[in-house]
Amino acid sequence: MAGGPAPSGTGGVFSAGSQKSFFAQLKKVYTWYTGGFLVFVVALAILEQMGLPRNWIGYVFLLATVMLYAGIGIMSRTSDAAEYYVAGRRVPAIFNGMATGADWMSAASFIGMAGTLYLTGYGGLAFIMGWTGGYCLVALFLAPYLRKFGQFTIPDFLGARFGGNVPRFVGILAAILCSFTYVVAQIYGVGLITTRLTGVAFELGIFLGLGGILVCSFLGGMRAVTWTQVAQYIILIVAYMIPVVWLSIKHTGVPVPQLVYGQVLQKVSAREEELIKDPRENQVRDIFKARVDTANAALKDPAKAYADGKAALAKGVEDLKAAGAEPAKIAAAEKALSSYPADQAAAVAQWNKDKGLGARAAPMLRHAEAFPGKDEKARDVSRRNFLALIFCLMVGTAALPHILMRYYTTPSVKEARESVFWSLFFIFLLYFTAPALAVLVKYEVYNVLVGTEFAKLPQWVAAWQRVDPGLLSVADINGDGILQRAELAIGGDIVVLATPEIGGLPYVISGLVAAGGLAAALSTADGLLLTIANALSHDLYYKMLDPNAPTARRVMISKILLLVVALLAALVAAQKPADILFLVSAAFSFAAAAFFPALVLGVFWKRASKWGAVLGMVSGLGITMYYMVMNQPWLRGVFGVTSPVELWFEISPISAGVFGVPLGFAVIIIVSLFAPAPSKAVQEMVEHVRYPNVRAGNA
Amino acid sequence: MQLTQKHQEYWNKNLRITAILLFIWFFVTFVLGFFARELNFNFFGWPFAFWVGAQGALVVYVIIIWFYARYMNNLDREYDVHEGEE
Questions:
Q1: Could you give the ipTM of this predicted complex?
Q2: I want to staple A399 with a disulfide (CB 3.0 to 4.6 A). Which of A208, A590, A595, B61 is the partner?
Q3: A178 within 8 A of A594, measured Cβ to Cβ
Q4: Closest C-alpha to A152, from A226, A222, A217
């Protein structure tokens, strides 16, 4: 095994006797594993110095890590139900924390987060706060009670608490809806990274990555996924930290970027003020603005604009010829005429593209400014959306089934509580660092790139522009030979991907970062696929269709479904659905509106009744979906909505959950008050989950 | 299942600490977030509101969860509802 000593032995590693010796053994195994991984990276770095070609480094990283995950998956194979669904409920708090961290942090967190912060400054902090603060809700409202309840899935809880199959079925549908949208995005990320690491085609990359996902979850269910996720967490956090620390030493001389980037932020802000006043920057923006205006005017009457444009160019050539101008000028005019779009459709496409340049004509954003806007009203709307987005992300965090499911796997309620702490701690390490990385990269770009002559730009700029112009492209718009900030178009993902090169690190670190991104995407995809397969096999098949099914058959069916769902998700991902980032955020609003009110009231309000919960879930989810479909451009296209966009309180559709969650609570409460109180057995169950252990006869 | 006065007291204490911690969570997230434009004084180099969003709030969240786990695990023992060691 190239990735260092993988847990040795015959499969007994993840199934030791007493809990204490199990914990000691796990600690030993993962310490060796981390050490082995570092040795592996150092060895590759030495090989690189000795002349190992770059794409070989990519292959070695891909193969070594995927084989490592496969090895853990094979060692943890099982067909026992408790092992398959909840890893035998033996996962110590700290390891469950790491597994949750990897489960939680997706490709979007690892690769996209710092980029979003780079592009949106303070506005991006909504994701930082939203995706961490949600764990407070998990800790206070859900984790300990779900652990005490002690079944296998979230629909299980809904079914038992609200009685009957209807709440369970609504739970299954909602779980599949939010997990599937999310898993498509993960598999898409896997495909992207595999492609970048090895140069294979995107579709092939998807299916290679799919293999990596399936070897873990297919053989050993939750047990294999848990131990793989711990391994993946270690890789992803190491991969994230090394380049940032390096960049921080380079700029501040201090290896703890999180503590010192405030100084760098001040320098960035000072530089921003210079750039905002810079006449050349304004010149570039004016050029973009003119193009947008031309495009908008042309799009009003495309046929006329197309004919006029062509006629004007042709006339220009004629005039020059008639006036006997220099041949070079005539040639230039003829070139402009021949490169004019061949037909009206092509011209319209070009204008639509130019129309999108509006963002580049917009005034520069100040990184540290909260709620920017041109007037008081715009700032107010920006603030409202910022807070609404935080709300949706937080409540969604506390309602995503693949995260909540993880708290079934700890040995006790006590450890479930501690496990939420460890989860957030391990997530915190990365989220605490991302804003620092964004500021450090911005400093580098504003000071080193901006204002440099095009001929003297660092080599990595050209390299990335070749890889993908969507990630980074520079063009001398105003023709002064010097790069202005507005002439640089940057895609968010590059911030993390190119950091090693920006910092001047060897290529092996770039490979490490890609491997980290892969670990993040694979681990999240594993958890999500398992959630979907379990909802179908455990909740739908076993609990609703065939309650007498033997354990072995249930686990078998779960494995088959896992395969089917994974293939379906891969097929959807291979279509490269348009708005993948929107889909991820939509999953949070869906989960928030569907699950959070029913779960919380289920524990905290004995009076909450079956129909209250069912109607609350349906109406919460319904209004969230309705608002998105009516107002989100891509969904409007998919569903053919033509009525005008009508925003409520100017809340953007990404935060639709802000309407769904309160409605869900209100409906559950109102309907429950009109319905008879739940049966005594249900009320006792609520009492049961509230106390970790009620002893007979204690007074 | 027989619940006693003591069990009720345990649950009430749980509700109280949950409410207090939830209030802190709400304050740090939404109240400080709402006044972010006004809270832009220099805090060790960062504008304060930016620092809260990037670090301060996160630290508070971690502490909230740590404190809740510790408090409840102690409360379990005090009210004899902890697991194991019958």
A1: 0.95
A2: A595
A3: yes
A4: A222
Specify the pLDDT at position A698.
Answer: 46
B83 vs A414: CB contact, 8 Å cut-off? yes
Cβ separation A370–B37 shorter than 8 A: yes
Distance (Å, rounded) from C-alpha A117 to C-alpha A113? 6
Distances from the Cα of A384 to the Cα of A87, A631, B58, B82, angstroms: 42, 17, 21, 43
A499's CB contacts (< 8 A; 6+ apart) are A243, A244, A247, A437, A441, A513
Per the CB < 8 A criterion, the answer to whether A558 and A221 are in contact is: yes
The CA–CA distances, whole Å, from B61 to A20, A399, B23 equal: 29, 17, 12
Burial of residue A326, with CB atoms counted within 10 A of its CB: 0-12 exposed, 13-18 middle, 19 or more buried: exposed
Contact across the interface for B81 and A693, Cβ inside 8 Å: yes
Q: What is the pLDDT of residue A9?
A: 36
Residue ranges covered by each domain of chain B: 5-78
CA angle A553, A559, A564 (to 5 degrees): 125
Cα separation of A292 and A296, whole Å? 6
Instruction: Find all residues with CB under 8 Å of A204, minimum gap 6, and list them.
Output: A194
pLDDT at residue A254, rounded to an integer: 86
Q: Would the pLDDT of B51 be above 50?
A: yes
Compute the radius of gyration of chain B from its Cα atoms. 18
Residues 142-171 of A with CB under 8 A from B: 144
Of A133, A263, A687, the CB nearest to B3: A687
* The model's pTM: 0.88
Cβ–Cβ below 8 Å for B55 and A421: no
**Chain B, 10-29: which have a CB under 8 Å from a chain A CB?**
10-11, 14, 18, 21-22, 25, 29
CA angle A60, A62, A68 (to 5 degrees): 95
The Cα–Cα gap between B4 and B37 comes to 51
Asked if A428 and B58 come within 8 Å (Cβ–Cβ), the reply is: yes
> Would an 8 Å CB–CB cutoff place A424 in contact with chain B?
yes
Low-confidence ranges of chain A (pLDDT < 50): 1-11, 698-699
Q: What is the DSSP string of A155-167?
A: HHHHHHHH-SHHH
A311 close to B (CB below 8 A) = no
